[in-house]
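Case study 2.
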Amino acid sequence: MTTLRFCVEGIGLWSPQLANFDALRSVLAGGTPEPPPSRPAATTLPANERRRAPESVLLAIEVAGQAVAMSGRSAATLASIFASSQGDQAITDYMCTTLAQAPTDLSPTRFHNSVHNAAAGYWTIATECRAPSTAVCAQHASFGAGLLEAVSLMLAEQRPVLLVCSDISGSGPLLEVTGCTQPFGCALVLAPDVSATTLAQLQLTLTSAQPATALPEPLSTWRDGNPSAHALPLLALLARGQGRCQLDAAATLGLQIDLESVA
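Prediction:
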């Protein structure tokens, strides 16, 4: 088995029930946090861009901004991995409908925002980041695949890396296929070494596919409603500060993650 070690310096989180990582901590402690506004703030984007950006971009930018702010890193220097199972389902549904009914009416702006790396483009432009950026998709294993990609890049280049994973709700006939009933986004700033801003030190071991870590209610319901919420076992592990979790990175590949004490 291959074992990789990494540190977490920042955590971002947004869903209709959770405004940030502190809200998840509150839920796990038995609390009922105040839900966030219906639209992610995404304050990293200029106001004009926020008005024009689709929900998928706002969600990804919001959690990325939270994680980077918590880490204290400069967004302009961070390599990034943006993962998503379905991309922008609302725009995909719009394009399929328009192409079937009135192809010449297709909006160039919406087409521009339909690409899988749209959020990465908005992020790197807004933060003036010229570091490498990669878009990853692996269906319900997108978070695990993105995490493995981010940790591999972090270790290979010995540099901090921003990981973002997000999906919005399904729309139209796509909802029947994806089963994605609510938005969910999360982000982590990863680093190869312990520092003054380290929140947790983790050990990642590659395994064969294993059952995903069980979650208490309502976390298990939230995970069922969005593929990006398959990150919840790791987020819960970070919130509790101890233990082990299991994630999928592919149909036959699993990730066992153990939280270690910070040296």
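The two ends are 24 Å apart (CA to CA).
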